[in-house]
Fold this sequence. Notes:
Distance between the termini: 19 Å
Structural class: alpha/beta
Helix content: 40-55%
Shape: globular
Number of strands: 13
Number of domains: 2
Order of helices and strands: EHEHEHEHEHEHEHEHHEHHEHEHEHEHH
Strand content: 15-25%
CATH superfamily of the largest domain: Glycogen Phosphorylase B
Radius of gyration: 21 Å
CATH topology of the largest domain: Rossmann fold
Amino acid sequence: MLANCNDHSVLKTLLTIVGARPQLMKAAAFSHAVEAQKGQLEQVLLHTGQHFSHNMSGRFQEELDLPKIDVQLEVAADPFIRMGQMMRGVSDAIEAHQPDAVVVFGDTDSTLAAAMAASRAQVPVVHIEAGLRSFDRRMPEEHNRILTDQLSDVLFCPSESSIKQLASEGIFTDNRPGLLVQAVGDLMLDTARLFGGAPVDNKADQTRKILLTLHRPSNVDDQQALRKWIEAIGKQVQDQGVQVIFPVHPRTRKGLMAEWGDAWKRALKERSIEPFEPASYLQILQWLKEVDEVWTDSGGLQKEAFFMKRPALILRDSTEWTELVASGFATLCANPDALPAAHLKLQQSQRALDYDLPLYGDGRAAQKMVNSLVRWLNR
């Protein structure tokens, strides 16, 4: 049994919502902590169907030893129709299982849909990864973060800066009784330590390697933008004799095929970029131990790079993980033309950095969340 929990508490039910790859990884660490609280907490796991394929969801569920999905929704690809279908599905699950709280992760459409459904049903919303802001209203994720935080009753923050952000938005001054806001650290660090082990300071293979991911609509949906990124990356690594490992997201594959047709893999290889199928989480962790740097437009991989002591070039003009940039562990690269200068800046920033800096807690975020939830639900 975890420490600091109320021995006289009544069994409480959590409806935990997942819908995309990063949420499965967060739910893995959270579910392990819930399982350790048998008799005090039980969990119903709902997958919204937002991203459901074996490569994008099924494989992660298997390798992270997640509990079985109790409720599986089927939703449309159209984001407007899908949003309503997810809200309806979560609402039906609330009616069927009568949870004491609905738990949501991060900033996807699934997150906001579940928060809205729970709020309408007057069921408390627990938001894990609260208080993050990229300050870029062009990103749908930013809307989802802001609105979910406003609807939430329990806000678990990954860092002190996210606590300060919520305070600046007046979250602490509203009239919701029993509001809980707490900095607990990052669940992704829990998961990385649980499944990836300790980071490697010096890799055995001396070949210089980069792990690349691209999947943001702004980077890959426009063929001209995608071509510019591929050309710029190819030129940068060929000039430096670097090998690029590139697991290709289905969305990106579609753009590559539209630009180069069936020859898209050859086009990448000609630019020293080696394409791979979408990778499992454990494969990503293994690659992080083998590469020298990470170039990505993914939010989660920015942190995973930091957890594994690898610098990250963020292929965006903003990030919700502002601490990484402020501390020099990552550098923003707004467009392909900025790549050479941004890469040089990243390399120069690495000379005196301490990757043991606890930006996102101590790897025990899930335990802290569950302890706090047991107390809060039995208050």
